[in-house]
Structure formats: structure tokens, C-alpha cells
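Q: I have two molecules that I believe assemble together. Could you output C-alpha cells for the complex as a whole instead of separate predictions?
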Amino acid sequence: MKDQDQKWRNAILHGGPEAERAFRDLSLFYGPKLYSQIFKILKTDSLTKDVLQDVFIKIWLNIEQFKEKSSFYSWIFRIAHNEAISTFNREKRKTAISLDHELIEILPGDSDLEGRNPDQILELLNEATDELPKKQALVFELKYFQGLSYKEIQEITGTSQGALKASFHLAKEKIETFLRFKLNQLT
Amino acid sequence: MSKKKNILDHIKPAKTTVPSSDFFAGLAAKITHEYPKEKPSERSIRRRLFYFAYAAAAILVIGFIVFQDFNVPVRIENSLESNLAQVSNAEIINYIDRHIENYSSEEIIEFASVVLEGEVDLIADENFLPNDIQFTDIEKYISEEEINLYEFYEDELLIF
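A: Yes, here they are, computed for all two components at once.
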């Protein structure tokens, strides 16, 4: 657990005005990352904000349950992922979730991707990410979707850059296998 | 020979437009306002009061039973009962309030745990859940209520 996360956690556990300040700083730091992560699954601003609020309520109320077995961001990443997926499944039953705008662009040059709908590819990507081990999924999210450098991811997760590169490489290989298999099934 | 590109090299994620920092600050303020957290000192005093209340109640009950069992002369028993009856709940709480700092948390918890033992045994009893509950019922309940198992400690999930 990195020092800043530790300070925020301790301050929140102590309660009072210091806890509120720490929670505000934590929200400002992790909020945009969590927003991007959730938005990728839910695709609408209003739903994303609702889920983000639920995620932050859980962090605020349950922070003592974080046992420091993983990085703090891994813990909140998992909460956000679970909340987003359960909302996605619930909303999907009601009506198809419409895109505010395209979240991925398909570049020419790969025959399996030609003529595909970006939204369909994004859903497959989300499915593929869901199949990854927790740590690989986290690294993939931060590197591929959020475009962070390995140095930035190292600061968040506390994992060495070498291990992060290996993790990202493995994730890419697994996702490629998954995507090609699914796309060939669809044709 | 050129290296074959990964399929992901042909999929470019678009940059998500995130809300301004005001949104995140406002969200944090809203949550801390709606779910205020007390300082631990306030919490621990309240917890100690809770244990002390149990302890005080236990003293009254044990005292009553002891005097019954040893055939204490009726006059003395009546006197004790009459004295106890004269002590109001408010007086007990005031007494606890004044003297709570004379006892350590460990002493209070140790004493209260004896009093609470019966209740804990009830929960630990294997018949606490009805015998006809099946795993499928539990799974159905979890699914219908959309309970998120990641919110629980591993220890809490061992019952599954």
C-alpha cells in the first residue's frame, strides 16, 4: 500500500473533519480513474455517476475492511467493477444501454475487425477483461484504456515496472485469443 | 518478415471525458455529510457504556439469584429487593457515566463476554439455520437480492 493511500485510510478510520478532508482528496485522485473505468462498461454519464456514488459510499463506510493484502487501488477497482457489472446486467434487462458516443475506434488492417460495430467490439473487450485474473485486469484497464505509463501504474499499484509489462503482455495475448475466437464464432 | 500485429493494435480506445474536479469534491462532501463518521473516542465511550450496561444488569441478576439460593433471611432479602427496586434506570446510567473510567476496556469486555456468552452460543448453534434450507435456496437468494459477495470477509463466507 503506498504511503498516500495509507495516510488517507488512517485519517478516514479516525473520523471527524480530518477524515472528510482525506476522503475528499482520495475522491479527487481516484474519482476520474474510476469514472473512466465505469463509463467504459455503462456508457452513459448519468448511470456512471450513480454507480460512482455507490462505489464511494462503500469505500467511505467499509474502508476498515481493506486488509492491505493488495494495493488500495486494486480493492476499489474491484468494488467499482462489481458495481458497474451488476448495474449493467440490471439495466440491460430493462432496455439496451445507448452510447453517448463511441468509446473505441476500429483501425483498418485486421480482417477479423473489418465491418464490425465498435460497440460490439467494446462489449467483447469488456467480456475478455472480465475473464482475466484480477491483477492483469487492473493493469490492462490502466494501461490500455486509461493510457497511463508504467511508471504511473507502478505508483498506484506498488508493482515493479517489469512485472507490470509482463502482466500487460499476458493480458493482451489472452484478450487477443478471446476476441479472435468470439469474432470467428460470429461470422 | 514483419511481426504480426496484435488485434488490440487495431482497436483504439477513445479518451473518456471525465467530470471536473468540482464534481468529485461535491460527491465526497455529499457522502461525508450523509454518512458522518464519529471520532473513535466518542465511539469507544459509547461502546464501553454498552458493555457496562450489560455488566450492571448482570450484577443485579446474579445478586438476586445468589440471595435466593442461600436462603438469606427474608428480612435481608426483602431489604435487598427493596433497595434494588428503588434504583431507577436513570440512576444506574448516571452511576455508569461517573465510574466508567475506573474500569479498563479489557475488564469490561471480559465481564460482559460472560454475560453475552449465552447469546453467542445461540448463533453458533448448528440449528440456527432451519434444516430444510438448501444451497440452491441460498444461491437463489443471493442472486435475487443481488448481494455482492466481494463485500464480505472470507471468514464470513465460510458458511457457504
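A: One point stands out. The two ends of chain B are 55 Å apart (CA to CA).
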